[in-house]
């Protein structure tokens, strides 16, 4: 049989096969493959050697080209980031490389379990051959594969190991021992004598790369908070926790690799994590932009990687739509007859319709904020105790008419006499905000009857704004009812131009009709005498 690199002879089929291992740091770029195999056919020995050599040259060039594309410019201080390959680093480097080798084994095991016994037997034969080669390499003290492994680590983690001849020999010995142990454990997994989980490497055993240079992903949110504190600004707990969750998600992908060497593949893997949690495209884009803002003070290059991952096509937000009169009547009947809603939900919907107030503003009302008038009530929205308004312009006194709503008027009268919180069962969340639990519950019931996802409980505010505008109510009054100070905010979110319908556009019809009539009167028909 011919003796050549990158080729084997399959006795069962009587043919030569070319095979070359995919570098571990390029595995994801080659669809998770660990080995490239190409049949050389039933040819003579010399021809098989020649074909294998040509294929090896071609694939090595592909690997080099792919690795060059995946490199991300470093922003760490100095021309090259280096670390000393002492005994502690050497042991951690061996453990980190084992983790890189174990990852593709999970996919290989899943593939084998879907195939027949012949494929499994072939995998056992290959595993035994790998074990024999690892033992032979360990016995002879060979360094070539260990040096290759060190290069794969340098490429994968964008750093340079500084070593002496003695420290390199020490690393090679450690790597050869671990390679032999890993090959033996993989064989026992295929033989059904242990679980693949036994091969996993604990995170504390790997290279703590941020100990040498760069920034750990988990510290990004804390850095953002500290920067704001340094200029006298405070951060909301809810916002900080949101940013911290995004930073933690990035940490699960990059581990202890500094964010300064973030790669496009890392961001792609991060988006896969978010999609597995059913995050929609708009949410993922928002998270990428937040992550870019967290990375920018640390590394402009890393922030660019996140920004480049955002799709360049315009993805407009889905606007909330106001309810029609029929839809709003249906909504009232839903909450009136549903077994999953509370007895006060119907009154809550009526108050939202009469005031256009936010759900949380109503749920935190105290009966002292209700004043009886001849035609109904005046509802005073003020910050009181734990109650907080969205903005300072949200403080307002809104009159409501209940003369045709005896049930609501009687309920308000009874609650005013009893005193205390208007909606007694409502409580703030840990951030001090009212309405989160009620919003989920009420919208869940609403979704069972309305398939249009642009219709939500908050659409009642859009309905109020649209109704007031169609009645030509002073724009200042409209904004005051909804608690807005800026007309741009009001029109953009609650009454945008793209939601104007035929009823709204009817005002332009007679004007344009009159224009057409004037044109017809002044322009003679073809053939008419002038």
Report the portion of residues in β strands. Answer: 5-15%
**Overall body shape:** elongated
Order of helices and strands: EEEHEHHHEHHHHHHHHHEEEHHHHHHH
Strand order of the largest sheet: 1-2-3
List segments where confidence is low: pLDDT < 50 over at least 5 consecutive residues: 71-79, 525-530
- Output the number of helix runs: 20
- Percent of residues in helices comes to 40-55%
Mean pLDDT: 81
Largest beta-sheet characterization: 3 strands, antiparallel
Q: What structural class results from the helix and strand content?
A: mainly alpha
> What is the C-alpha radius of gyration, as a whole number of Å?
35 Å
- Distance between the amino and carboxyl termini: 103 Å
What does this 3D model show about the protein?
The chain is mostly helical and 530 residues long. 53% of the residues lie in helices and 7% in strands. The protein has 20 helices and eight strands. The chain has helices at residues 45-70, 87-113, 117-140, 144-157, 165-190, 220-230, 237-254, 264-276, 281-295, 300-309, 325-337, 345-355, 359-363, 406-418, 436-447, 459-470, 475-482, 487-493, 502-505, 509-522; strands spanning 7-10, 15-21, 35-41, 82-84, 160-162, 370-372, 376-381, 396-401. A hairpin with a 4-residue loop joins strand 1 and strand 2 (15-21). Helix 6 (220-230) runs antiparallel to helix 7, helix 9 runs antiparallel to helix 10 (300-309) and helix 16 (459-470) runs antiparallel to helix 17 (475-482). The protein is elongated and about 105 Å long. The protein starts with 6 loop residues before the first strand and ends in an 8-residue tail after the last helix. The model is unreliable at 71-79 and 525-530 (pLDDT under 50).
